[in-house]
Specification:
The complex is a heterodimer. By secondary structure, chain A is of the alpha+beta class. Chain A is built from 16 helices and 19 strands. In chain A, the strands form four sheets. In chain A, strands 12, 13, 14, 15, 16, 17, 18 and 19 form an eight-stranded antiparallel sheet that branches. Chain B has a five-stranded mixed sheet, sandwiched between helices. Chain B starts with a helix and ends with a strand. Residues 1-44 of chain B have low confidence and may be disordered. Classes of the chains: A alpha+beta, B alpha/beta. Chain A binds chain B through residues 35, 37, 39-40, 42-44, 46, 48, 89-91, 93, 97-98, 111, 135, 157-158, 291, 295, 299, 376-379, 381-385, 387-390, 444-446, and chain B through 18-20, 23, 82-85, 88-89, 108-114, 116-121, 123-127, 129, 131, 133, 164-170, 174-175.
Chain lengths: 517, 176
Amino acid sequence: MKKSKYLALPKGLSEARFDAAVAKFKAALGQDQVLTSEEHLRPYTKVMMAVDAEKHTPSAVVTATSVEQVQAVVKICNEYKIPVWTISTGRNFGYGSAAPVERGQIVLDLKKMNKILHIDPELCTALVEPGVTYQMLYDYIEENKLPLMLSFSAPSAIAGPLGNTMDRGVGYTPYGEHFMMQCGMEVVLANGDVLRTGMGGVKGDKAWQVFKWGYGPTLDGMFTQSNYGICTKMGFWLMPKPPVFKPFEIKFENDADINDIVEMLRPLRIANIIPNSVVIAGTLWEAATCGVRRSDYLTTPGATPDAVLEQIRKDKHLGAWNVYCALYGTQEQVDVNWKIVTETIKRAGKGKIVTQEEAGNTQPFKYRAQLMSGVPNLQEFGLYNWRGGGGSMWFAPVSQARGSECDKQYALAKKILNKHGLDYVGEFIVGWRDMHHVIDVLYDRNNPEETQRANACFHELLDEFEKEGYAVYRVNTAFQERVAQSYGPVKRDVERKIKRALDPNGILAPGKSGIRI
Amino acid sequence: MTTPSSDRRDVLKGLMAAGLLVSTPSWARSLWATGDAPTAAGAPALAVSTLVSGSALDGAFLAGVNSALPGHGATATHQLNRLDAGLYQQLNAQLNDGEPGLLVGLLDDASAVLVLDLLRSAGAQVLSVQHHQVAPGSDAAAWAQALGQSLMSDRPLPQAPQGNGALSCVSLRCVI
């Protein structure tokens, strides 16, 4: 069989037809904006999931610099029935990286659409293009001395607000539920139409970034975690920078303390005494982010024994659970809330408070404080050095913010991970009433046997959690079809009908969140 | 044992094999000129940058890289230690400054993830990315040095010493 000059071809398309499509992409976008060589595509094929990278190899990468070019791409894709996987910065790593959900899809990389279109320091709003990173926004805010604060996910310095929000990611400030803070989108539909949500369709309107709902059905949500359109602009709200920021940590000694921690914090969180997304991080998360590697303690494969975890805690002065929160506001507000927090902890009779003054510049306190105050950093990438080998899959079930739920989820996750010879490296992120339990399934992707175990482990996590009534809020591309099943056939049927109506040729990211025509 | 000029020719052969002399003509021409007449006055130097992340093997690796390009002086080295965001910003600025060059690196897993993504966004051509498990010991330094030489000349990468307590790391070679 003749070897194709392409790494992969779109499903059902001959090489000659793809040649013709590539020629049209080059004519529409420019020669340099269409990449097909192995050397250019190699970094787009890198995945951290426990599956063969071949399953996620793109056929080409195209870059667009304008909405008109995005429209040109979808027109060609419709003509040739080419599926297109769009990325903004492509930096969601353990959720799938920049690689497409299915082999042969072309990647539409919007990195060059990277303009900060507008920041209003009085109304505290922003409007950005897909390629804008949090670091770019942070630099802009600092250079212009704007009294604003960002909220972002941990890969803050290199990830971007549009991609993170469209994937319904979370951050660590009072504005940490990012989709809740989104206000207005511009979306290129599969037929090339450009939709502006909310107030964006009203000629001459100035409220696009301040009033989310517009008129009639509110459509923004259906474009998140979906494949109904390509978002080319997004508005969102920024938090006014508070005059006083007081980060603190509460260390707890025992695994079993998780129940009491959540019961103690939930009332403070719901009442906004503690206004930010509180993090409750397990020992190994903390250890990895302050530079500890598994090989520092063990040379044998398998799950890390509890005795070693205990030793790491002693050596690095870590708790079994390490809670990070912050207070924001005027000095008077912070003083009042600090009194409430400290008295609550005192009453509980457990938990040791560590203030910023006590922690100094030590990690992981430093990067946690930065995340809670909108300062980008890359410290959390230390997770990838814990076991090494480049394997990472986020398992992120949600639950009610109840101690009993967290206790149950923690025990179940640890049992399954350890059974497969892997470690519990997890944290809980406390929302207003919910809990995102985020576990990094870390494994050596270069070890085929360990990769197979990680894949089996992830399946078992999904299956066993589902039996207990839990589902994940987000998942890597290799498991999106599986997770879509958890949410039931009626939802899937509605999603398919919407897909058929908006994208009859099924060109936009077929398979994303399990949605196809 | 290879001579400096044969090492340089290996670099050029490797780049030609990868099609880079066609796809990046301006700096490839510079390379060719440099390779043909390494001692010619005013010949453009090959812009080589190295990436390391604070491992015990950094010194040996850098020595290997430099030995493959004698006469060119020190390469520009990015010490990407401690996941410092500022260091990655500097690297990103270099990757996007429009100046072509060759990058070779030996990095820990976390740094490799970050670097590869910056390379992707900068439109780099990634010629090789390879994961290694390197057992500590005297053989490790020799391996790192040989690795640096091999990456510069596009020769097959040496086999890392195996054994208990192996350290995970990633080598890469790319042009921007």
